[in-house]
């Protein structure tokens, strides 16, 4: 959500797509989510910049354990054009691949966590985007949103995101 609040056009585009697909429906369902494209690009780009697990363990190979720095690879300018920029459109083509898709040597528990987490994130984000309009408080500007993370085993925001939500009146 923080990355989206930094780029209001991204929020607007995601809302427009969802509201067009749902056409005033009260609830977002899994069937609806199968039609959603742009929000999925937003989620992929968010995971690229803020991987849930920045360090990945690969299977032991010849007695060695390899640690993959997914956070660094996902921000490497050699692999990603404008690598520090939040640009969901980069995932429109299948040529863009997040690190967790690159190798079958990544532990399977990571794949399970990603699959389970993605379905929850997709539904939650769709509900938030569909049912509410979002703005920053106290005349805060999008460029003032700080997306700094705290270092650690998992990525978490260093600073809380404060936003103002107003109902979009879709029967909630």
Automatic annotation (TrEMBL):
Signal peptide: none annotated. The lineage of its organism: Eukaryota, Viridiplantae, Streptophyta, Embryophyta, Tracheophyta. The keyword Metal-binding applies. Belongs to the cytochrome P450 family. Gene3D superfamilies: Cytochrome P450. GO terms for molecular function: heme binding; iron ion binding; monooxygenase activity; oxidoreductase activity, acting on paired donors, with incorporation or reduction of molecular oxygen. Keywords: Heme, Iron, Metal-binding, Monooxygenase, Oxidoreductase. This is Uncharacterized protein. Pfam families: p450 (PF00067). The keyword Flavoprotein does not apply.
């Amino acid at each position: 959500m923080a990355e989206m609040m930094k780029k209001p056009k991204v929020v607007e585009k995601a809302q427009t797509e969802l509201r067009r697909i749902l056409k005033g429906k009260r609830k977002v369902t899994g069937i609806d989510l199968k039609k959603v494209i742009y929000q999925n690009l937003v989620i992929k780009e968010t995971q690229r910049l803020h991987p849930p697990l920045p360090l990945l363990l690969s299977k032991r190979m010849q007695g060695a354990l390899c640690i993959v720095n997914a956070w660094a690879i996902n921000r490497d300018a050699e692999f990603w054009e404008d690598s520090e920029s939040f640009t969901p459109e980069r995932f429109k083509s299948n040529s863009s691949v997040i690190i967790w898709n690159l190798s079958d040597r990544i532990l399977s528990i990571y794949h399970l966590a990603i699959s389970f987490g993605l379905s929850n994130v997709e539904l939650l984000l769709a509900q938030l985007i569909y049912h509410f309009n979002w703005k920053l408080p106290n005349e805060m500007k999008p460029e003032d949103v700080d997306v700094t993370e705290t270092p650690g085993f998992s990525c978490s925001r260093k600073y809380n995101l404060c936003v103002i939500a107003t109902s979009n009146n879709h029967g909630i």
